[in-house]
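Sync notes, pocket subgroup
Present: LS, DG
LS reminded everyone that the earlier model was apo-only. Rerun requested with calcium ion included. Inputs:
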Amino acid sequence: MMKNVVRAVLFASLAFSCAAQAMVVRGTGSGALRGGDLTDPENNGNASSYLNYNATFRSSVEPFFYSEGAFNVFDNVVGGGDAKWCCDAGNVWVEADFGTKRYVLTGFTATSGNDATDRDSDNWKILGSNDGVNYTTIFAYDKPGVSAWGNTRLQVNEYLANVDFVTPAAYSIFRYQSTHTVGNYMHQINELEFFGNQATVPEPATFGLLGLGLAGIIAARRRKAKQV
Ligand SMILES: [Ca+2]
Ligand SMILES: [Ca+2]
Ligand SMILES: [Ca+2]
Ligand SMILES: [Ca+2]
């Protein structure tokens, strides 16, 4: 009896650990990207300028599309130099802000840089926010000294909701943040793709219409008062 219980517990924990490690390696290079992600559904973003993207980008450092700047994670190109973000140290982040649109994240891809594995993050998160102040963790990777991409360079890892992370609430801002790298030195990452379903945003216009309605009633009363 006891043996069966132990077996059942072991099986359950094995099944759980398998489910928790379902990240899919799509391959290497630009061709392994899913493409058509939320930041550029048409795949026509300019690889070296802010042209043809559907989000506003921000970063803790190097906010540009060239010279290994942070926005290279959205430029649809996997490679070295101006296709990746490198080589800042410490706590670094880059985010995409979709303004009034909110999305329920269904998946994302994250791609490794072209050089030393030491520069890959070993402590990174995908966070969601609706105000740019309060952020909620959607996915967290924390394996000291171990890169999520192993030693393979330019590798596209894919993570899916309900498999690799719990389906989150709807957010208008998605942030990648790294606090530590394998070699505890310079940080690099090549590309990020976010995928999701647009959610209905609570209508602030309702209050606007209510306000207009009240203003109308007040104006009508004033008119009536004048007539009297
Ligand atoms: Ca576009
Ligand atoms: Ca893209
Ligand atoms: Ca670029
Ligand atoms: Ca890139």
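DG: The chain has one domain: 23-221.
LS: Helices lie at 2-19, 205-227.
Action: DG to write up.
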